[in-house]
Structure formats: structure tokens, C-alpha cells
Amino acid sequence: MDVVSPPRSPARPRSRLGRATTLAVAALALTGCGVRVETPPPPAPVPGPLEVVRQEAAVTSAELARDAAAAGEATLDESLFAVLERIRLTSDEHVEALGGVYSTEEGGVIDPATTDESELEGDEVEDGDEDADDEGADDEAPVDPVSPHDLVVRLAEAAAAARGAADRLEDAPLAQLLAVVGTSRLLAADALARTLDIDRPALGGTGLPTVLPAGVGSADLAAVAVAEDQAGFAFEIIAARSPEGTIRNRALAAATRHRATSDAWVRLAGLTDPGLDPRSVSYALGGTADTEESRKELGASLEDALVTSYAALVALADAGGRAELAELHTLAAESARRWGQAPGVLPGLD
């Protein structure tokens, strides 16, 4: 089907956000009488609010990668190991996308895989304690790995933190990246919970927008309203062409949700009048959707298009107006997964 172009988006955050530069040690050489004096190194720069958020997000991803690796090494369940390994790899990619973990002591970006946990957290050894630490190092018991159950909770909490930061940041590209990372973490928590057969984390929100996001123009709101309506129409066709069963019921539920979401956007944007309503009665389908495989592919492509649309809207919205957009982004990514679309490392930005 003809997929509506996603809302315009500012330049995507480069894959290396906030890459810290190595500090140079200044030296002052005095000539005359053969005397040379060196000044002490300059103090480390104090990170600004934006760098603090970026660093925290990168450290969290590094810790999640380390926890997933430890949990994976401790299990003999191959299916569980596969999920944990995917979480590890995805979290490592998040560290890279966020610009890496910066160490003041090292004067640059470090490799979290070769750095102990205390350095990631910024702990420092007190003067006089180094010898004591060295003497007791051999007596320390190995740290127990985080259990997969606890990792589900940590992923969900880390997702909430990323979403919260995305909503309050003034920097739109970093806010967009954090919202997308939050979605990825939630999907990872959901996948792990399903593998463990435990309660799955809430993805957040009702799936319907309730407030008009400041900063998003009417043309972009009209575009997402059409995209949601187009998805609703297509899922109605998928349901009509599916036999009784899970696929048909899922398609009907998706059609109802997308139609309701489109109505909500039109109402919030003040486009309810016939002359202003951008939606059509019907839309062209890309293909016949006459086989179960083609219907699943169509469903996945519809939801994936909305993942991209909501990622773009997050970057357009002002600070304080991104929370519901981030939730809709997560919902679309989870819906795409249910139709067979494997979630990327950065859904909507991959």
C-alpha cells in the first residue's frame, strides 16, 4: 500500500553523540638561566546538564550489557541465553550510539567491557585505602550475577529513566535518541519476561493521545492522523481476508485501535471539519494480502511505518510534550514485533 511519508524530522543524531575529546596537558617553558617550569594540568571540565544526561544513559546501557552477559554465562537454557545475548549486544550498541562512557580519570572515552563496575559508577579510592584494597582483593568473593528476573525490572526502570530524560531535555536529537533507546529497553524487558514466563512490564499509556504536543505543526499532525487511519483501513482488509482465528482477531483489534488513534489526532489538531479532515474513505493496498504470510508482512510494514513516524514526532515536539509520543512509539514497535518485524537496535532510526 502507499505508505504516508513520516513527519519531517530534524537531522538525526549522529551515531556518536557528545564524543568527549581528550584533555591536553598544558606546559609553560621558561627560557633564560636554563630554568624550565611546568604548570600543573588544568582541572577537568565540569560537565553541563546535557552531558550529565548523556553520560548517565551511556553508563546505564554499559551496566545492562554487563548484567546480561553475566546472566547469560550463568544459564544453561539455550533459548534464555539467546535472549540475554541479544540484550547484551543491543545495550552495547546503545553505548556506542550515545557516544560512549567518558572517564575523567582516563581523560576520554573508555571501553566498558574492560572497565570494572566501580569505574563505570565513578567511584574513587580514598587516599590510603589502595594498599588495603590490594591486600583484600584476593579474599573478595565473586559478585553474583544479576538474575534474569531482576534484569527484567532493571530494563524496565532504565526505559522509564530514558523516557523521562527524553521528555524534559531541550536538545531534540538527544531526546529522540533517548526515547528510542527507552523503547528498545522496554521491548527487551518484554521479550525476557515472555521467555521466563513471568509478568511482562507495562509498555505505558493507553495508546491514544490525550494532549496536543507543543512544537508539532498541523501538517505533521495531519500526516500522522492519515497514517493511523490508513493502518486502520488496511487492518480491516487483513481481517476480512483472514479466516477465523488469532490473525483475524488481532487484525480487528489493531484496526479499532488505529481508527481511534486517528480520530484522537484529528480532534486534538482541530481538523474535524469535513473541509479540514485530511483522511480518505479508502486507501490503496500494496499487494493482495491473500496469503497468511503476505497479511503478516503487510501488518508489520504498517506498524513499522508508524514507528518511524512517532520517532520523528518526538524530535519535533518541545520539551515536556514528548511523553505520549514516546509511548505511542513503543506501542507501534511492539505491534510490529507481534506481526513478525524483529525490533532493531534503535527502532525508527535504524
Please tell me about this protein's structure:
The protein has helices spanning 49-73, 78-97, 117-120, 130-137, 148-168, 172-196, 218-240, 246-268, 292-316, 323-338, and strands spanning 101-103, 108-110. With 350 residues, the chain is mainly alpha-helical. The chain has 2 domains: 48-121 and 145-202, Ferritin, core subunit, four-helix bundle (Ferritin, Up-down Bundle), CATH 1.20.1260; 206-342, Ferritin, core subunit, four-helix bundle (Ferritin, Up-down Bundle). The chain has a two-stranded antiparallel ribbon with strand order 1-2. A hairpin with a 4-residue loop joins strand 1 (101-103) and strand 2 (108-110). Helix 5 (148-168) runs antiparallel to helix 6. The longest helix is centred in the N-terminal third of the chain and has 25 residues, at 49-73. The chain starts with 48 loop residues before the first helix and ends in a 12-residue tail after the last helix.
